[in-house]
Amino acid sequence: MRWLLLAVPSLLALAGPWFADDDTGRAAAFSTEGLLGTDFAGRDVWQQVLLGGQDLVLVAVLATAGAYALAVPWGLLAATARRRIADELLMRPLDLLLAVPSLLLLILLGTTRAGGVLVWAIILIHLPDIARVSRATALEAANGTVVEAMRLQGESRWRVTVDFVGRSVLRTLATDVGTRLTGTLYLVAAAAFLGVGVSPDTADWAVMIDRNRTGLFLNPWAVLAPALLIIMLTVGLNLAFDRALRTRER
Amino acid sequence: MSLTKYAARRLPLTLAQVVAVASAVFLLVELLPGDAAVVLAGDSPDPARVAQIRAELGLDRPLPERFGAWMGGLLQFDLGASIVSGRPVADIVLDALGPTALLAGLTLALLVPLAVVAGVRAALREGGLTDRTLTAAGVALYSIPEFALAIVLITVFSGYLGWLPATAIDGIGPAVLVLPLLVLLARPLCSIGRLVRAGMIEALAAGYTRHALRLGVPRWRVRYAHALPNALAPAVQQLARTTDWLLGGVVVVEAVFVIPGLGTVLVDAVADRDLPVIQGLAVLFATTTVLVNLAADLAAFRLAPRA
């Protein structure tokens, strides 16, 4: 059941563009003919649904991966810093970022319309949190007896930091990948809905919901189909990760 | 450490945070390409006219000078005037504050008691109906974006059933607020309810509660005077994180239900490159977040003084 919840929207999102017709014939706006009817511009909703999931999923995955790629080394560096001042210099500025509401940051950066700006904005939003968790976990490992023994044996700093401390951090971080990916998906979709970082006529599930709202009572499927797909995707993802976590704990 | 001492230690940090965030917002907005002079000049901007508007607005002055002027104004609660409409930003914010404060206030007023009651009930009977509902709903509702949930609710309750209005275009009444509040409550209710539940289960199993029971302290006193405050501390801190969601959620919910609040002002201002309005709102939002975090830390400290 939960795999179905996740599989349907992700398959549609990733493989959909391959099955979409190139022919975008225009019909009357918000008619109910065809599988799901037409949208505000008279385009076929089913074709738009096929096209509209890819960006959403790709941006979310890319941004989450980017956030970890930047934040984990950041936290490791702070935790293994020999001097306290280096640790403070790395971590204090992140506290400031935490004070900016995430959607506000997304809206401010999103308006620059630069390519890939959404990905960067999301990396910036996740950075303080992931870096803090990595630092806290790394501190525990870095002050343990194992590291002390490795140092005494003359292991290189690289091997101690990356091989041992890094690996122990990854184990802890693996537990919240799911929540973070769902959170990213949430932010990307909300931004697109508000028209941040996307052009108003792109085929995107969130944009479809925003643009087709005016015809909600004429052709509800133009809004409901993308809304249900987004809900299935986020809920399915959360359920799958939640279950995976609980099986691991046992 | 006493509460006053703890507060005195936290206050300078909080002030520094507000100032730093305000500066960061100013710089960030400065970095936005495109400026208001071009927007104001109309559809086919003529370079001379754009330059003239820029001079009138003071946009041609060097960055440090404008930053100094803006910070100086901020200290006297003067946020400047909107570039597009010419109205003082403070007035615009005050006008839009009402609906947003109403939404956020009602959400918080409903959220706290509901989350505590649900969490405590679930904890007192683990595996019971409340517990199972809270856990299942928690995992599912936690991740749904507000706008998607809102659209589905509107389709059902305004479209098919016709019970509730779909937007606030005809003014804000009790019926209009039902759907926005449901949407805003869904996410935080689950997360905070689950935290209260977890904290309560832990507190009820702890040595001090069992000891108190053995001493003959009444059960209700052990539950609500000893276990509950300890269980609430982590939930209060999560509540502070929730204001971040709430601000974001309010922006989205205002957009969906066409409510003329701060979120709508923000989205419009960004579309018009109305820098003073964006800056004013950003400072207001950031200050609120910082202050709420401070309040939450103080409340958590009062409930369970530890460090």
Explain how this protein is built.
The complex is a heterodimer of chains A (about 250) and B (about 300). With about 250 residues, chain A is mostly helical. Chain A has helices at about 1-20, 45-50, 55-80, 85-100, 100-110, 115-140, 145-150, 155-175, 175-195, 205-210, 220-250. Chain A is elongated. The N and C termini of chain B lie close together (about 10 Å). In chain B, helix 1 packs antiparallel against helix 12 (about 275-305), helix 5 (about 90-125) runs antiparallel to helix 6 and helix 11 packs antiparallel against helix 12 (about 275-305). Chain B has about 300 residues and is an all-alpha fold. Chains A and B meet through helix 5, helix 9, helix 10 and helix 11 of A and helix 1, helix 7, helix 10, helix 11 and helix 12 of B.
Largest sheet of chain A: none
Largest protein-protein interface: A-B, 44 and 47 residues
Order of helices and strands of chain A: HHHHHHHHHHH
- Secondary structure tally: strands of chain B: 0
Given as residue ranges, the uncertain stretches of chain A (5+ residues, pLDDT < 50) are none
Our measurement of the CA-to-CA distance between the termini of chain B, rounded to an integer number of angstroms, reads 8 Å
Ends distance of chain A: 22 Å
Quaternary organisation of the protein chains? heterodimer
- Uncertain residue ranges of chain B: none
Secondary-structure-derived class of chain B: mainly alpha
Concise overview:
With 250 residues, chain A is mostly helical. Helix content of chain A is 72%, strand content 0%.
Question: What are the SSEs and their pairings?
Answer:
The complex is a heterodimer of chains A (250) and B (307).
Chain A: H1 2-19, H2 45-51, H3 54-80, H4 84-98, H5 102-110, H6 117-142, H7 145-152, H8 157-173, H9 177-193, H10 205-212, H11 221-249
Helix pairs in contact in A: 1-3, 1-11, 3-4, 3-6, 3-8, 3-9, 4-6, 5-6, 6-8, 9-10, 9-11, 10-11
Chain B: H1 3-31, H2 36-40, H3 47-57, H4 63-75, H5 89-124, H6 129-141, H7 146-160, H8 174-205, H9 207-214, H10 219-257, H11 262-272, H12 275-303
